[in-house]
TrEMBL record:
Residues 350-370 are annotated as: Disordered. Residues 350-359 have a biased composition (Low complexity). The lineage of its organism: Bacteria, Bacillati, Actinomycetota, Actinomycetes, Streptosporangiales. InterPro entries: ATPase_NBD (IPR043129), ROK (IPR000600), ROK_cs (IPR049874). Signal peptide: none annotated. It comes from Actinomadura luzonensis. This is ROK family protein.
């Protein structure tokens, strides 16, 4: 990227139903302070989905008033499994069920369509990177490390070291959901070892995910609370309703989320012994929960994370900010870092006719140290 020409990065977060887009300018400001969504069309196959991504970029440029000629590159994130370079797994995934997605190189295909450099990230890695940079700030981010657990339908994760996502040889580093957990101290009396969709038993995702709640945790806890209103609901409905009950401090719901907090604490305990990060981030649906429950869950995760005294003094626990925008923003940051490697990027004059909007963390994420 030129050091004298105004430039910006477009971030594209690809999901099963919608694409979300953002724009990051040369000074490090995001130019949209909300969602800029459009249909993703992934279920129609690669051709329709690629066109939808191109349209998502054009729409966010129109919203922000940024000229296409000012776009230096694009950050793209998708759900996994996929390689570090954006080749969709040969087995496909929940979002990429169309047969043409198997083994499809989405990064290269989008790069050819847009005629712009495209940098690929796993969606959980993108969210982890955004949490890292938002908490620590651009000055300290490159000297800090973090581990993020993103609790959704499954459990995604991300490991950031010295401001860079750890990707691994096959691009599958940070797949924290499939780390096996010891059952001692985690399972209740008479509770069966939960199974994960990946085929593992007793891994993090089998406890800490919406799927884990529906298939593993709720059946056990509803049996202990047979008169609970959720006992009359189908398990998929009950699982999605559980957070609202937890926000009202319902005993059954809090028991389920306490068990999830134990699982996340065990995960972070393992992470503490091989990365010893400066920060532990929790993301996913909890970020959108009411403040009291959100803070309760984060505190329970902290309590269940076994750290040495020195580690407790050095590390922090926080939520991934801006849940719905974290993926697109993290993808944009990853692209900026990749494209500006070894270069001092000047901000130049504004590449937009609109007004820039600074990033502001949501409640539950304290400002990072200076």
């Amino acid at each position: 990227m030129s050091s004298s020409t105004p430039w910006c990065i477009v971030g594209l977060d690809n999901g099963g139903n919608a694409n979300n887009a953002t724009v990051l300018d040369g000074s490090g400001r995001f130019l949209v302070d909300g969602m800029v969504e459009s249909p993703s069309r992934v279920r129609e196959g690669p051709k329709a989905a690629l066109q939808a991504l191109a349209e998502a970029m054009e729409r966010v440029l129109e919203v922000t008033g940024v000229r296409r000629s000012a776009v230096a590159g694009v950050g793209l994130d998708t759900p996994g499994p996929a390689s570090a370079d954006g080749v969709i797994s040969s087995r496909g995934s929940t979002n990429f069920l169309h047969p043409e997605w198997a083994g499809f190189d989405i990064r290269t295909a989008l790069e050819e369509l847009l005629q712009l450099p495209v940098v690929y990230s796993n969606d959980a890695n993108a969210a982890a990177l955004y949490a890292h940079y938002t908490y620590f700030g651009p000055e300290r981010a490159g000297r800090a490390s973090s581990v993020s657990a993103i609790v959704g339908t499954g459990l995604g994760g991300g490991v950031v070291e010295a401001g860079q996502v750890v990707r691994g040889a096959a691009g599958m580093a940070g797949e924290l959901g499939h780390i096996p957990l010891p059952s001692a101290g985690l399972l209740e009396d008479g509770q069966a070892l939960p199974a994960c969709n990946c085929g593992n038993a007793g891994d993090v995702e089998s406890f800490a995910s919406l799927t884990g709640i529906e298939k593993n945790l709720l059946p056990y806890w509803i049996a202990k609370y047979p008169d609970h209103p959720l006992a009359a609901e189908p398990l998929p409905v009950a699982a999605r309703a559980l957070r609202a009950y937890a926000e009202r401090e319902d005993p059954l719901a809090l028991s389920v989320f306490e068990q999830q907090a134990k699982a996340l604490g065990m995960l972070f305990t393992i992470a503490a012994n091989f990365t010893d990060p400066h920060a532990y981030f929790v993301g996913g649906g909890v970020v959108a929960a009411k403040a009291r429950f959100r803070e309760w869950l984060l505190e329970r995760v902290r309590v269940h994370t076994a750290l040495r005294v020195e580690q407790r003094e050095a590390a922090v626990f926080a939520l991934v900010p801006d849940l719905d925008m974290a993926g697109a923003r993290g993808a944009a940051i990853a692209a900026r870092e990749a494209l500006a490697t070894g270069e001092a990027v000047a901000t130049g004059e504004a590449a937009t006719t609109g007004e820039a909007v600074a990033v502001s963390p949501r409640p539950g994420v304290a400002p990072g140290p200076a």
